[in-house]
Design a protein that fits this description.
By secondary structure, the chain is mostly beta strands. It is built from no helices and 8 strands. The strands form 2 sheets. Strands 1, 2, 4, 5, 7 and 8 form a 6-stranded mixed sheet that branches. A hairpin with a 7-residue loop joins β4 and β5. The radius of gyration is 22 Å and the shape is elongated.
């Protein structure tokens, strides 16, 4: 018998810790879950397994109490209160058994994560990223945290609101391969002002259903530097439009900063003003050395004709930009100013 334990009723966010939903079935092994804790971090937490059994206390990453076998197949709500600093499936373990993140936890009940590298990587049955904001005080960022979560369709507002210390590798490959992700909330990265090297490296690569981007998505990430937007939207084959000034405020971007940023975005209508606004051509990239190689590379085009950003008219001063194949694959059918693009940019 497959029993669905009721999740009816509101989650009272003022009184709960970190809450997730798991689905188990089959034999004892199939009905067993192991929390994906990480060595090198602190643990002093209480686990409520959601089946009426006794709660367990976990004090180490390899504590036997992190493992639980359910007597009956079904869906169960697991709550963790206290200190649980490291969490990483990293494409292994019981990654297929977790089906929802319900709530990230109230800080009075759950202390901050310190490491979510590969946190939910490979959790292909995970549908929801929950309510509230991630309680995270580490600096290493969300490297591959939700990679290949192919059932996730949206991202909660303010998901990263409390992650203000995130710097290097901030959102590197965070949503890489989330092929069902269709929309992003306004101000998703508003509070992550310290993000720097590898900041948005392949963040949304392979998000094939993502059709548009909110205004000011990267406005507050002014410290993004080396490899900043490397392949950020690579292979986003449904991406059709971009807002004005998408990268206008990211003036610290350097080496390989825009390499393959929109590679293979076959429906993308290019916009003249995504890097700067009119009148800023002489200052936006002055004395900057960075890469635009294959930034807008196309193998085919199925979108609406747009206008290429006139990067070739910018003053790079003493900078030496890499421009190889920046607009490779474009034609008069994809950008109205195709005839103006110098050969070295094609």
């Amino acid at each position: 018998m497959f029993r669905r334990h009721s999740l009816v009723g509101e989650i009272h966010t003022a009184t709960h810790g970190f809450m997730t939903e798991w689905t188990v079935s089959g034999d004892a092994e199939g009905r067993t879950i192991t929390l994906p804790l990480v060595a090198g971090y602190n643990y002093d937490c209480v686990i409520d397994w959601g089946d009426g059994s006794a709660k367990n206390v976990v004090t180490a990453f390899d504590d036997v109490n992190r493992i639980h076998t359910y007597s009956v197949a079904g869906k169960y709500k697991v709550e963790i209160t206290g200190t649980c600093e490291g969490w990483s499936f990293n494409n292994a373990g019981d990654k297929l058994k977790i089906t929802n993140i319900l709530y990230w936890g109230n800080p009075l009940k759950f202390n901050d994560f310190k490491d979510l590298t590969g946190g939910f990587y490979g959790c292909t049955a995970l549908k929801s990223l929950g309510r509230g904001s991630i309680l995270y005080s580490g600096s290493g960022g969300f490297y591959e945290t939700f990679r290949n979560c192919i059932s996730v369709t949206s991202v909660p507002v303010d998901l990263f609101k409390y992650s203000t210390a995130v710097s290097e590798n901030g959102f590197r490959r965070t949503f890489y391969g989330c092929s069902s992700l269709a929309s992003l909330p306004v101000d998703l990265f508003r509070y992550n002002t310290a993000v720097s090297i590898y900041g948005f490296y392949a963040t949304f690569r392979g998000c094939r259903k993502l059709a548009s981007l909110p205004v000011d998505l990267f406005r507050y990430n002014t410290a993004v530097s080396t490899y900043g937007f490397y392949a950020t939207f690579h292979g986003c084959s449904s991406l059709a439009s971009l807002p004005d000034g998408l990268f206008r405020y990211n003036t610290a971007v350097s080496t390989d900063g825009f390499y393959r940023t929109f590679y293979g975005c076959v429906k993308l209508q290019l916009h003249k003003w995504i890097f700067y606004l009119t009148g800023e051509e002489g200052t936006r990239f002055l004395n900057k050395t960075l890469s635009f190689a294959e930034c807008f590379f196309l193998t085919s085009f199925a979108g609406t004709i747009g206008e290429a950003p006139e990067l070739w008219n910018c003053n790079f001063g003493t900078g030496t930009p890499t421009i190889t194949d920046c607009f490779n694959g474009h034609s008069i059918n994809s950008v109205s100013n195709y005839a103006d693009i110098p050969a070295e940019w094609l």
